[in-house]
Specification:
The chain is mostly beta strands and 301 residues long. Helices cover 5% and strands 49% of the residues. The chain folds into three domains: 90 residues, Immunoglobulin-like; 82 residues, Immunoglobulins (Immunoglobulin-like), CATH 2.60.40; 84 residues, Immunoglobulins (Immunoglobulin-like), CATH 2.60.40.10. It is built from one helix and 25 strands. Strands 2, 4, 5, 7, 8 and 9 form a six-stranded mixed sheet that branches. Strands 12, 13, 15, 16 and 17 form a five-stranded antiparallel sheet that branches. Strands 20, 21, 23, 24 and 25 form a five-stranded antiparallel sheet that branches. The termini are far apart.
């Protein structure tokens, strides 16, 4: 009996000395892979991982796919994100490998991101070119989301050599180009930069610097008014506009190649206000200069 008790005591002592049984530490079982909703050729994409369920620390590796074809593999690293700059259009996604270093099993699980469509960068557009004097044009363009710089380029022929006029910040949407030759055609293009990559150039748009004319004389009859104005270098004609109030809407009367005009069929004893602007005709297109200040007169009763 004493021997049996001694054996049992030894067994209990051995059990007390042995470490308690512990189940294997939990391995990584879940994670979220975040993908950009869209992208552009030449503009950096970024994928990243959050909400990893496991022990940790973790190591990550990202493989980049385009249209299902493996483009780029990556070694394991501690960073839970991946940058990649696409060179072609297509559907991009990543396969993420997550290794749980805190698990005794050291498992590796894989997760796929959603697809990201990548397109060519949209081309900017010049919205208007306005003659502000005989030697200056104001060029305006669309603001592009994410643009950090704009470049405005100019040529004197549509298919000729373009040179840089000005590099501007991403907050700029217009520029006054000065020291131009009166009556000369100028062709402009604009491009923008995002993510360190320049877009293609916008289609060329034409502008012609024309000076502001001025009404020099105005005389009235009972139902008519005679106007004369100053000549503008480079103008092929002039457009006369008329209103019945100084700040009202000025309607086009007609155009004239010369610098005088007789306006008829007016009402006796009524006040009329006139403005004039020069234009240059090229084919079916007219390029206008700025409107003059108004001159007013009252017809005779």
């Amino acid at each position: 009996m004493k021997k049996i008790l001694a054996v049992l005591l030894c067994v209990l002592m051995l059990l007390g000395m042995s470490p308690a049984f512990s189940p294997p530490a939990q391995m990584v079982v879940d994670a979220k892979v975040h993908a950009p909703t869209n992208g552009y050729v030449g503009v950096q994409l970024v994928w990243y991982v959050t909400d990893v369920v496991g022990v940790g620390p973790y190591r990550y590796a990202f493989d980049v796919y385009r249209n299902g074809e493996l483009l780029n593999m990556q070694d394991y690293q501690s960073d839970s994100y991946r940058y990649y700059t696409p060179k072609k259009t297509g559907s991009y996604r990543v396969k993420v490998y997550i290794r749980d270093l805190g698990s005794v099993q050291a498992p590796t699980l894989t997760f796929f991101s959603d697809s990201t469509p990548v397109e060519e960068k949209p081309v900017n557009k010049i919205t208007s070119i306005e003659a502000i004097s005989g030697t200056a044009l104001r060029i305006s363009w669309n603001r592009m989301i994410g643009a950090t710089r704009y470049e405005l380029w100019r040529s004197t022929t549509k298919l000729g050599s373009y040179r840089l006029v000005k590099s501007l910040t991403g907050l700029t949407s217009s520029y006054a180009n000065t020291y131009l030759k009166p009556g000369t055609k100028y062709f402009y293009k604009v491009r923008y930069r995002t993510g360190g990559v320049w877009s293609s150039f916008s289609p060329p748009v034409v502008g012609v610097p024309l000076a502001k004319s001025a009404i020099t004389t105005i005389t009235a009859g009972k139902d008519r008014v005679t106007l004369a104005w100053s000549k503008v270098t480079g103008a092929s004609g002039y457009e006369v506009r008329m209103s019945t109030s100084a700040n009202g809407t000025y309607e086009k009367v007609r155009t004239n190649a010369g610098t005088t005009m007789l306006v008829t069929r007016l009402l006796p004893g009524k006040a009329y206000f006139f403005k004039v602007r020069p234009y240059q005709r090229s084919g079916t297109i007219s390029y206008y200069g700025p409107l003059s200040g108004y001159r007013s007169i009252r017809t005779l009763k």
